[in-house]
Amino acid sequence: MPQTSTSLPSREQIQAEYKWQVENIYANEQLWQADFDKVKNALPGITEYKGTLSQTPAKLAACLKLRDEINILAGKLFAYARLHRDENSANAKYQALVGKTEGLLAETSAATAFIEPEILAISDDMLAAFRREQSLAEYSFYFDNLIRQKQHVLSPAEEEILSRSAEATQASENIFNMLAHADMKFPDITGEDGQKITLSEGRYRSLIMSADRRVRQEAFSGLFGSYNTFRNTFAATLAGNVKKNIFYSRTRKYNSTLESALSESNIPVNVYDNLLATVNNNLAPLHRYIALKKKALQLDEIHMYDLYTPLAQAVKFNIPYAEGLKLVREGLAPLGTEYADILNKGLTSGWIDVYENKGKQTGAYCWGVYGVHPFVLLNYNDRLEDVSTLAHEMGHAIHSYYSQAAQPYATSQYTIFTAEVASTTNEILLNDFLLKATTDKQKKLYLINQYLEMVRATVYRQTMFAEFEKSIYDKAEEGETLTADLLDALWHTLNTKYYGPGMVVDSEIDVEWARIPHFYWNFYVYQYVTGYAAATTLAEKMANGGTGDKQRYIEFLKSGGSDYPLSILKQAGVDMSTPQPVELTLNKFSTMLDELEKLISKS
Ligand SMILES: [Zn+2]
């Protein structure tokens, strides 16, 4: 059922077997309303525990259990409203239901806000004694994680000041967003067919991939020229954001902003440092990729604006959904029969909303609903990327499915650090399978190009971002001022180092730091690299390992948030405190370069 954007069907026109079954959460609105009332009525009950949590372990356990029950119901209520709204955003009924649930969620979090400060106020000895009670056993990791951060929690009066400061210290990021996404104007350039195109961030992404070199050069100069006009303002917003994070990390008595950011997932600082060192020791494959790209594109010099040009023109794969399902089933076969059974269950029992319809949310996501099942939104349109997205989202879905079945609510949610591992493992398995199965040269070239670009953009580029972040925080923490000149120079040096002597690092790129929203997310991007490297390692084990590896992988999927992410991954067989996962990933990148070299020398 392929569709074009000009003739989208209405939701009613889509066959039921291609729609998710939100009725698996609530069969009708009366049942939804009944749970809504139930949560509403439970809130006064939970506030009655205020001031009593240190009295007996039974009181503490009862309060935490009640909070879980409320959160499970609130999760179902919200999912029901949001999934229905995403089916068709024009449906006012579900917009209203979303609004109503959001109000309830805010009330819920306000009503339960006393719990954690009160637990932290219980003396260590008393809490240790409480924790020997069986009723609190399922909260063991929750307590460990809470207590671990105790030394960084300040007095109630100081905490109050910090929380009131948040709105004001948010200004740098807000100004960045307003300037970059609302006020910035980009110039007109001349497109492939000679037509005038007004540049935008969205259009830049396709124009920079143009096979016409003049077009991508104009897009490149146009985009970065605009950022360059505001370089001092962008330097000020970025510097302001860095100062904000330094302020909070110092006030909370961390040794550095990096330590403070990583402590959330309990990741030691040396994991970050080792990642930068390992990628720096393995830049040679990226330099080789640049040289091969220059050769394949038959360029005299390779410039920054040539980087995104695909080695193979887009190949139309045209994969109907039924064929896509078959490919995903075959691609994920290395995960074993139990996994295959759950995959099959997911594919056939109302987890997935397959096709686009009028008003439907764009893109793709997975939404796990505790006590029900995961839901997956797709906009499947017969492209190879859509098959990849299906494998990716089913990775999230089955991770949620296993974790929610195996864990009590308190430890069922996996952390950001491990969130993309299962999904990316699936994508890599599918890609490897397709590469093996494809004999057509153009298609093979296309798949290799996709893979190489994925590693370049996820591993190399994000590590370069992570290195930039580390440098600017180091400098700012030593009292240096982050000026536009300093940031430009740093960005230029990093690009020269990462892309190597074969690349002409055009000066326009120097201001690229100004357009990266992730630099306002405080040491977030390195997790793209660790997640991808962990997934590559696991996919390798699934394809070539024994039954022990496969069992450990299923255990990983079942572990949810029951331990710290590094421990969970280590149990699965990936030690992120060593260079191996990243080395293995970049070795695989090298092997793909060999394949690419063979293919392009044949032509
Ligand atoms: Zn994902």
Automatic annotation (TrEMBL):
It comes from Sporomusa sphaeroides DSM 2875. The gene is pepF1. Has oligopeptidase activity and degrades a variety of small bioactive peptides. Its EC number is 3.4.24.-. Residues 208-584 form the Peptidase M3A/M3B catalytic domain. Its cofactor is Zn(2+). Belongs to the peptidase M3B family. This is Oligopeptidase F. Residues 118-186 form the Oligopeptidase F N-terminal domain.
